[in-house]
Design goal:
This protein has 1 helix and 10 strands; from the N terminus they run ββββββββββα. It is mostly beta strands and 150 residues long.
Length: 150
């Protein structure tokens, strides 16, 4: 992902045993850029970037919607919304480890506990605008400019 693109996803986790976690980490190459996580026993979901921060959003098994806007120069804006009651967190910050963009992500259910009540799900993933849209825009603008000069 590059400047101007948004990575969106929904995260839905069940119960999480104390000290265990569910998280989504975002990467630029092999370096971790940011992470959203809930650690069992904590009160709130955590957001980690160049400065660790909590979100102030308490545990939910009703799901979260997350959008990360890549702003360029290693900066971003994240919006996290709890789906059960619309509690939200917004932050503009800087990716950690000198990361500039997002090239991948990893989803972890790190031993949240036994039985299906502790399953976690990641779905509704989007990248907007889609990379193909950038290509079409890049190819289309010169054609429009050329047509306009005639």
């Amino acid at each position: 992902m590059t400047t101007g693109q948004t990575f969106g996803f929904d995260l839905d986790n069940g119960w999480i045993d104390n000290g265990q976690s569910v998280s989504v980490a975002m990467f630029d190459g092999s370096a971790q850029a940011a992470e959203l996580a809930f650690v069992g026993g904590n009160a709130n979901y955590g957001w980690t970037d160049s400065t660790s921060n909590g979100t102030g959003i308490g545990f939910t098994d009703g799901g979260l919607h997350v959008e990360v806007d890549v702003l360029g120069g290693g900066s971003y804006t994240v919006q996290v919304q709890r789906l059960s009651d619309s509690a939200s967190y917004t932050k503009t910050g800087t990716f950690m480890n000198g990361c500039q963009n997002l090239t991948g992500f990893a989803f972890f259910n790190a031993n949240a506990g036994p039985f299906s009540q502790r399953d976690a799900y990641l779905n509704n993933m989007t990248v907007v605008p889609e990379p193909a849209s950038f290509l079409a825009l890049g190819l289309g603008v010169p054609v429009l400019l050329r047509r306009r000069r005639r």
